[in-house]
Amino acid sequence: MADDSPLEDQVRHRVDDGVAWITLNRPEVGNAITADQRNRVIDLLATASSDVAVRAVVVTATGRAFCTGADLRAPSTTAAPATANPRPSDAPDRPVGDVSRLIRDGAQRLIASVLDCEVPVVAAVNGTAAGIGAHLAFACDLVLAADTASFIEVFARRGIVPDGGGAYLLPRLIGPQRTKELMFFGDKLTATDARGIGLVNRVVPADDLEATAAEWATRLATGPTRALALTKWLVNRSLESDRAGAFADEAVAQELAMHTEDAQEGIAAFVERRDTQFRGW
User: Fold this and answer.
1) Same domain, residue pair 243 and 123
2) Is 86 part of a structural domain of the chain?
3) Which is more confidently placed, 172 or 93?
4) Residue 230 in contact with residue 258, Cβ under 8 Å?
5) Cβ distance 137 to 125 under 8 Å?
C-alpha cells in the first residue's frame, strides 16, 4: 500500500528527558515496515548511540499492532545510485545473490542496529508483533507487552525460513526446542505465554503500556549510561564466548567503566551516603 505521508510521520521520533521514542506509525497496515521506515529506524538507533543527550530508547507503535512484518507491497522511495549501470535486457529478474543481499542489508541490519545500540533499548509492544516485527521486539534489551499483544513466527505459514536473526535470537532466549515449536507451527503466542517462556519481561494492561515504558526508560536514562552499554556488550558477547573469553571481556569492560565520571560519582555517593547523580559519561 502506498503511503504519501512524510517518512518523519511514518516513523515518529522525539527525545524527552534523555529518552528517545521511536514510534512506527502506519496503523492502517498494521505497521508493516517498509524499507524506508527500516532505514530510518536504523539511522535513529545509530544517532542514539552517538548522542550524549540520549541515554535510553523506546521502540513502540501506534494502533492495534506493533509491527506485522515487512511491507513487501510498498515501493522504496530511496533513489537509485546515479552511477547504476543499465540492466541487460536478458538478465533474470532475481539473479543468484539478490535475496541474500536483500536480507543482509535489510532485516539483518535492522536487528543488528538494536543489538549494537550503545544505550538500552526498550520494546513497548502494543499489539501484534509478527515476523520481523517479533524479532525487532526480541532484539531489544527489555520487552514490555500490553496484555492485548501477541507474537507470531509467521514464516512457515508462507513457506519461507525465518529472517531478521530469528534463528539466532530465539534459541538464545528460550532454547532450541521451544524455538522450533514456534517456528514450525507459526502459532500465535499471547503476551502472557511469551512472558512465561522468557520472551517478555513484563505484561501490563494496554492503557498502562506507555506509562510503564516511560518509567523504565527514565530509570535507565538516569543510570550510568556507559556502564549499562558495557553491561549490554558483555551479556550479548557472552552468548558466543567461552569462559576465558567472557572473563577477558569482563576485565576490559571493568577497566573502561572505572574510568568514567559516573563510576567516580557512584563511589563518592556511596562513601558520602547520598543518592547518585549520574551524568551518562
Assistant:
1) no
2) no
3) 172
4) no
5) yes
**Beta-ladder partners of 190:** 150
Number of domains in the chain: 2
Q: What is the pTM of this model?
A: 0.91
Distance separating alpha carbons of residues 134 and 153, to the nearest angstrom = 7
Q: What is the pLDDT of residues 57-95, one digit of tens each?
A: 999 999 999 999 999 777 655 555 556 678 888 888 888
State the residue range of the domain holding 123.
7-77+96-221
CATH code of the domain containing 234:
1.10.12
All three cell numbers of 74: 510498498
Length of the chain: 281
Helix (H, G, I), strand (E, B) or coil at 102: helix
Among residues 182, 104, 99, 103, the alpha carbon closest in space to that of 138 is found at: 182
Q: H or E element: which one contains 121?
A: strand 121-125
Asked if 203 and 135 sit in the same domain, the reply is yes
Do 200 and 146 form a contact (C-beta atoms < 8 A)? Answer: no
